[in-house]
Here is the input.
Amino acid sequence: MNSDKSLTHFDEHGASRMVDVGEKATTSRVAIAEGFVQMQSATLQKITANDFKKGNVFEVARLAGIMATKRTSDLIPLCHLLPLESTQVEIESAGTDRVRIVAKVSVHAKTGIEMEALTAVSVAALTIYDMCKAVDRSMVIGPISLLEKSGGRSGHYQRE
Here is the structure.
């Protein structure tokens, strides 16, 4: 957490800016995020039976999440482009009517990688919605949250 709790993406006049990380040390950074998609039980049964014409829902969503990490700086204003080293996206049933998505992203860089992990989860969830909306428009995405991050000046964070 930023020790002075100021918003780093604004200068002293309130103008938007990309944070200057030029003088920061390169460190190993890892971020883990999770999210959920709530759906009808019949929808999840159809997913696990691989009964969608568009393909294997979990595998397409996993690929979408991995691809999204590489585009995070294009999607989030003022986000630095990072040379990702690893992205893992796991998707599983979490009960009879819910899917859990977990993304773990790592890099050696001068700035954090939380946004990449959160983007992976968000896009994977959106992909599940897109692939299944023909049979279940009542799906709900969320919550999506950062579970853990390590590296950098702010140190280790783990959601309680």
